[in-house]
Specification:
By secondary structure, the protein is an alpha/beta fold. The chain has a domain at 106-166. Helix content is 40%, strand content 23%. Strands 6-7-8-3-9-10 form a six-stranded mixed β-sheet, sandwiched between helices. It has a four-stranded antiparallel β-sheet with strand order 2-1-4-5, with helices on one face. It starts with a helix and ends in a 7-residue tail after the last helix. The relative contact order is 0.15.
């Protein structure tokens, strides 16, 4: 593909020269990467490397110190209120602790974005909530409260809420955190099904090597000392060609390639 504009159209997220932090503390600097449409893209690294800070900038909760973030060619960085709101509606977000309102039923939690951002009738909202809950394996749970759900079910309810506005991009913050291995792998399968059924682009912040091996199309790894990206590509590329000791240590080196069915992008 020779035309740069045509090439850019393949990317739904473009991050260029991003530096971010808090006050006088710079957490990340000079970060650049692009995410293709329909891709499952992982941001990984050791604790304290800036994964959560990067995510907060990507979803608009924090503003970068320098650099630019674009969604579908439209700038999030420096966007006015209306433009920013329009861009944010293209995103769905699931937080590490699910962030469900404990005083609201599952159905009410999932319906909340529709009530805030659309003029749909109560019956239309009810029908859409039922569809999304069915998609994540929680059909009939509308009247259940979050406290009555297992950790894995709460993650599914949070995913249904994130999907309710049919976002182009779905962000996950440590989706397997707090889950047992079986529930974590079930959630991995649900992420794959969501991409397959809806064509949604998925961006995941995670340190779960099992999930990265079986779900990720591509990975960027952040370095705590360098405060930037230290490796990027498919997992096989990272382990076989990068030969970065920090990367090999994080993933368990050749053991991962030997013991896991690491996904290779086509």
């Amino acid at each position: 593909m020779t035309d740069s504009k045509q090439a850019d159209s393949d990317f739904i997220i473009q991050v260029t020269g991003l530096s971010c932090g808090y006050g006088e503390t710079t957490v990340l600097q000079g970060v650049s990467f692009s995410v293709e449409r329909g891709e499952i893209f992982f941001v990984v690294g050791r604790s304290g490397c800036g994964k959560s800070t990067l995510l907060r900038n990507l979803i608009g909760l924090e503003s970068p110190l320098e650099g630019e973030i674009r969604f579908g060619g439209q700038p999030l960085t420096g966007a006015g209120h209306d433009a920013r709101r329009t861009l944010m509606r293209r995103m769905g977000i699931t937080y590490q602790n699910s962030a469900l309102w404990s005083t609201m039923t599952v159905g009410e939690n999932v319906a909340l974005p529709l009530e805030e951002h659309t003029s749909l009738t109560r019956d239309e909202i009810h029908d859409l909530v039922a569809v999304k809950l069915g998609m994540v394996g929680l059909a009939g749970s509308e009247s259940t409260y979050p406290s009555e759900l297992s950790g894995g079910m709460r993650k599914r309810a949070a995913l249904a809420r994130a999907l309710i506005l049919d976002p182009e991009i779905l962000f996950f913050d440590e989706p397997s955190a707090g889950l047992d291995p079986v529930s974590a792998r079930n959630l991995d399968r649900l992420i794959l099904q969501t991409r397959e059924n809806l064509g949604t682009t998925v961006v995941v912040v995670s340190h779960d090597v099992e999930s990265i091996c079986t779900v990720a199309d591509r990975v960027v790894m952040l370095g705590r000392e360098t405060k930037t990206i230290i490796a990027s590509g498919t997992l096989r590329h990272l382990l076989r060609e990068e030969q970065n000791p920090h990367v090999l240590e994080f993933f368990g080196g050749e053991r991962v390639l030997r013991d896991k069915d690491c996904k290779e992008s086509e």
